[in-house]
Design a protein that fits this description.
- By secondary structure, this protein is α+β, with helices and mostly antiparallel strands.
- The protein has six helices and nine strands.
- Helix 2 packs across helix 3.
- The radius of gyration is 17 Å and the shape is globular.
């Protein structure tokens, strides 16, 4: 799936995205440590294997999972198989009406986490949802804010989103702080049951008027050739067809 094929750019969403800029849609930012970081590029299969190892080493130190689905608690090798399978299925299921962009977070030359951006009926709704995780050893360094800022820039500044939503369960203070720093406001609560018992999820949202675009400068390369794949503009019958 990660090979660049000699096919028209419209034939496969993943191939189309990966052909851009000789293989990557790149979101680049000036990080808070004075260097340049990357939140970008659809992860190659090699990246996914590396990310699985990072996640297997630990993504939180809480007694209860911070995720709506406790995917990180499966035993090996079931964990690695579901991790790789999930992202392969996500890439293969992409359509302009329903997509999840999973971006590898790169620091110190290696993948350290994953940031995703999801939309359904984006052309009509102009609404996105974010989710993310970082390896435990990389937390507390500002990466969480930077990676979310990068996809918010993509959503608001480039794709014309009107709303970005997220959420965090009780006790996930790190996610709550990231949301607050980036200009999210409370948007209600709901009860979820990740492991069969009730937990409160706090819902948050931000808009182009309220998000902190000044917090992390972001530049994006390679987007123009695949805008239609995000539902931002219409694709002709020769560019996309459902069969």
């Amino acid at each position: 799936m990660h090979a660049i094929r000699d096919e028209p750019i419209h034939r496969e969403p993943v191939a189309a995205l990966r052909r851009v800029a000789r293989g990557e849609l790149v979101l680049q930012l000036s990080d808070q440590r004075g260097g340049v970081g990357r939140v970008g590029g659809l992860p190659t299969d090699e990246d996914l294997v590396a990310l699985a190892a990072v996640a297997r080493a630990g993504v939180h130190d809480r007694p209860e999972t911070p995720f709506l689905v406790p995917w990180d608690e499966l035993p090996s090798p079931a964990f690695e198989r579901q991790f790789l399978g999930f992202w392969w299925r996500t890439r293969g299921a992409w359509t302009p009406d329903a997509w999840t962009l999973g971006l590898a977070v790169i620091a110190e030359g290696r993948p350290i986490g994953l940031q995703d951006l999801t939309a359904r009926e984006f052309a009509a709704r102009r609404s996105v949802l974010t989710g993310s995780w970082l390896g435990l050893e990389y937390q507390g360094r500002g990466y969480g804010t930077e990676m979310r800022a990068a996809v918010l820039w993509l959503a608001f500044e480039e794709l014309g989103a009107r709303v970005a939503e997220s959420g965090y369960v009780d006790g996930n203070e790190a996610s709550a702080r990231v949301s607050e720093k980036l200009g999210y406001a409370p948007n209600g609560e709901r009860i979820v049951a990740p492991k069969g018992h009730p937990v409160t999820e706090h819902l948050v949202r931000t808009t182009p008027e309220t998000w902190r675009r000044d917090l992390v400068p972001v530049t994006i390369d390679g987007l123009d050739a695949c805008r239609g794949l995000f539902g931002e503009c219409e694709l002709g019958p020769g560019e996309w067809a459902s069969i």
